[in-house]
Amino acid sequence: MARIGSFPWLELFFIVFCLITPAQLFYYSWFFRRLAFYSPDSKEHSQQHPVTVIICARDEAARLVTHLPGALAQRYPTTHEIMVVNHNSQDETRYLLDEFKKTFKGLHIVNLEHEALGIPGKKYPLSMGIKEAQHEIVLLTDADCIPATEFWIQKMQDAYSDGVEVVLGYSPYKKAPGYLNKIIRFDTFHTALQYLSYALAGFPYMGVGRNLSYKKDVFFRNKGFSAMNHVPGGDDDLFINKVATKENTAIVVDPDTFTLPEPKKTFPDWYRQKTRHYSTARFYKPVHKWLLGGYSATHVLFYPVLIVSLFFDWRVTLILFGVRFIVQGVIFHKTMKKLGEEDLFPWWWLLDMWMLGYYVIFSTSLWKKPKAWK
Length: 374
Fold this sequence. Notes:
Helices cover about 50% and strands about 10% of the residues. It is α/β, with parallel strands linked by helices. It has two domains: about 110 residues, no CATH class; about 230 residues, Spore Coat Polysaccharide Biosynthesis Protein SpsA, Chain A, CATH 3.90.550.10. Strands 3-2-1-4-7-6-8 form a seven-stranded mixed beta sheet, with helices on both faces. The protein has a two-stranded antiparallel ribbon with strand order 5-9.
């Protein structure tokens, strides 16, 4: 028995590795395979519901001028409106929207000129937008996002059927040269792998406001964002964490429904963005925190314990590593292809190892005070 001093440390690490690997395999085989092999049920009859698209903007004139036409030019013959909630912008947003309105009569502009005391973040303008929406189904995106195709509205609303009140979409960042872009896109993919897979398994816990839809009734029935008004973020993930259930949630991963935001160009900018997002996770339901925490803990421990275990029994260690590598590779390949991230697959093993550093860097975000939107 290999010992360091008087305690069999190598054996202990090996035992931990033998426990961690099956736990990781459980997440991949029970949860993540659902997205990898997901195929939506065919619908005999496709309905077209009236839809209100809501975009909240604050000093976003430079982005709206290039991104808003993508929403305004959607092919959707049924009644719909594109609403932009101008939240106390100090730039040219108001004048830009007035110019758009001259060409696009379906543009609905809501100008807010005051702040809501005690309600930080985007929840106030979004609440006002939902209140003003003319239609029951609202479809949300951001000012820095552009729909991948002109069929975004059509295919997102098509996920609604009897009992469905929430529809989760995917919003991959635009591709660009450089390692930071790959890291950002892998992080986005990895997050989607979890929240979309958990939704398919009956544990929906979040959505992203860049591509998210729900009904006004579920919003008002749950008193909107009142339970989370003290948190600057959470208008998407915390709200979905509260209202989404196994029965009322659907997902859409059709490439025609993706919305494409601009990725950050520097690591400090991305770090600030991520810390703001992660700061809301501590408010999730206990079951979701356990599921996410279990996966993160086994993921972050896997590679350090793997290295130490090689010194105890390299044969068994390599077998377990090989099984996990193959299963993970298959899941990543099929899911990346489904989500349009195929170019990341040759790098997946390196990006997976990078996640050790990722968890360490962003772990403190769970206890930081969230920063306000804009």
